[in-house]
Amino acid sequence: AAAAAGVAMVRSGLQTVDAQAKLAQSLSTTVASIQTLERAGELAGVSISGIEQATKDLTRRLSQAAAGTGPAADALERLGLSATDLIALPLDQRVGAINAAIESFVPAAERAAVAGQLFGEEGSIAMSRIDTATLRQATEDVLAFGVVVSEQDADQIERTNDAISRLGLIWRGLSNQLAVAAAPALEGVADAMAAVASRTGPLGIAIRGLFDNIGRLTTYAVTLATFLAGRWVAGMAVAALSVRGLATALVLLRGALIRTGIGALIVGAGELVYQFTKLVAGAGGFGAAMG
What is the DSSP letter of 147? Predict the structure, then answer.
């Protein structure tokens, strides 16, 4: 159990750091800054998806502002910040510098509008909750508890995770090759079963024969049931009364069946009843049939 738990922890850590490293690359920042922002989001009650969307909008708008375009240019000028300088900072410090400037230079009633120019309308609501104090506490936490991973370690984890994912390809490839090899045989079995079950196949012929003779079989069954209910049951009752035991009665009854060939008699009687029933139906009535 302990070994399984350890493997699960390693696997979870690999996946988490791998996802953080890929996000950091897409935002041109460090893994440590992503880890700090995730912790800040936990402290402020902001989901990682909200942080990701807001920081993606910020990165795009800073690039536009660096070229002198986009909605962030006016906001940065008001805050006294340079788009080029902000882009050079890790993402957590980038967010911290912007929020500190908003707190310092923008009245409370206008902060949401200025933040919206930088983080987007939805992102500004989330990022306004990650103030400078929250970021400072998050930085202390990830350092104190060993959460921070260096870029070299993150690269190693990415390579390891990619190698593990290739193991999955081995099994996927094996299953695909087995499927390819088995497909012709499975096709042959399916075609053979379909042929057997078709109307012209053995099973289809047997089923049609059953339904074509259902009347005859029903008559046999009724004749047998009548005989059992009358002759056999009466014979068992007499035998049971005369020999003082059910076991002895069954022995005697079995001997009688063997000697008389009762099965052949029942089939013959059933056939006579069936043919007479057909005659009555064809003649239009019992009297006509007898005539």
Answer: -
Distance between CA 103 and CA 108 in Å, rounded?
8
Q: Are residues 139 and 221 in the same domain?
A: no
Q: Pick from 126, 149, 172: which residue ends a domain?
A: 149
State both tokens at 257: 């069946």
* Residues 38, 134 within the same domain: yes
The first and second tokens of residue 99, run together, are 């929020």
Cβ(113)–Cβ(37) below 8 Å:
no
Strands (E), 11-113: none
Same domain for 139 and 13: yes
Q: Decide if 157 contacts 149 (C-beta within 8 A).
A: yes
What percent of the chain shows pLDDT beyond 70? 67
Burial class (CB in 10 A: 0-12, 13-18, 19+), 127: buried
What is the DSSP track for 92-124?
HHHHHHHHHHHHHHS-GGGHHHHHHHHH-HHHH
Q: Rounded distance, CA 275 to CA 284, Å?
A: 14
Q: 139-161 pLDDT, tens per residue?
A: 999 999 999 888 888 888 888 88
**Stated pTM of the model:** 0.56
Q: Which residue has the tokens 């009347």?
A: 215
Structurally, the chain folds into a number of domains equal to 2
Each residue of 219-266: pLDDT tens digit? 656 666 666 555 555 555 555 445 444 445 444 544 454 455 555 555
